[in-house]
Amino acid sequence: xxxxxxxxxxxxxxxxxxxxxxxxxxxxxxxxxxxxxxxxxxxxxxxxxxxxxxxxxxxxxxxxxxxxxxxxxxxxxxxxxxxxxxxxxxxxxxxxxxxxxxxxxxxxxxxxxxxxxxxxxxxxxxxxxxxxxxxxxxxxxxxxxxxxxxxxxxxxxxxxxxxxxxxxxxxxxxxxxxxxxxxxxxxxxxxxxxxxxxxxxxxxxxxxxxxxxxxxxxxxxxxxxxxxxxxxxxxxxxxxxxxxxxxxxxxxxxxxxxxxxxxxxxxxxxxxxxxxxxxxxxxxxxxxxxxxxxxxxxxxxxxxxxxxxxxxxxxxxxxxxxxxxxxxxxxxxxxxxxxxxxxxxxxxxxxxxx
Length: 354
Prior knowledge:
Blueprint: H1 6-17, E1 18-19, E2 24-28, E3 44-45, E4 49-53, H2 57-62, H3 70-76, E5 92-97, E6 122-126, H4 127-140, E7 151-157, H5 166-177, E8 185-190, H6 197-201, H7 204-211, E9 216-222, H8 227-233, H9 240-254, E10 259-263, H10 273-287, E11 296-297, H11 305-310, H12 313-336, H13 339-343
Parallel strand pairs: 5-7, 7-8, 8-9, 9-10, 10-11
Antiparallel strand pairs: 1-2, 2-6, 3-4, 4-5
Helix pairs in contact: 4-5, 10-12
């Protein structure tokens, strides 16, 4: 396995992913990719944009934390003509995928050519163009009986968003320009591997505007629960990047952002699994926050078209092992938190204990 530096790769990809002069970001064209085959017609728009259902009943029974971002969006949003907004109306998110990622996770649902910053497989969009497409699709389904077709969450995903963090402030500016700051919830993905890009490429004034935008959540993802699983899952990223993920997670919280997290607990080996997950949780509590595990979801990896093409024997074993690892995770949480704490939604959990 060849080792690579995620930061050096991000710096290499960034110039091909952003047009600073025209304030545009390279989005992946999904048409013709393995990922497109996984999308139904009603969830695939203009060859670039798609929608994702967040919560299904089976998911909730297994992992109640899957309720986000629907639950938090329902509480915060104001939808014209409605007094109350239900989570069911916020169950699907509209998104475009930034074409470019500095990690090479084997389980990624994105086709490799849709995240390599290759402009042959991408198209530059301004955030205003992104937002207009969201509004078009939202209007089409605003009276749909199927709640999963209603779009009230705009997700900024990838690839890796934080290689080009300018998209976050540009999107907020576009939303405010349209006077929709109370009507749209923004959900931003982050793989915790870009270290200081957010602070390097955004000014203090820009970051202050982001932290003051009330309808924004940042969802960070850990790519393993120890250095071994991190390097396995990212196909060779420097193991030192694992410990830096905790630092970035904490820094985003200290920045004043509303941060959620998830972990795919896939591992090729269950050796000493109880101790390994215990140490991850203890580190998360020590370096990020005592309640951080309660803001973390542990969803299972699902096999989509692009994932299937990359599977090795080790990967197949990791998929089998994820269920045992998830059970250990739940057991460890039960040792640390009481029933009431475990029943809370992630957005009801404090980021910090004062």
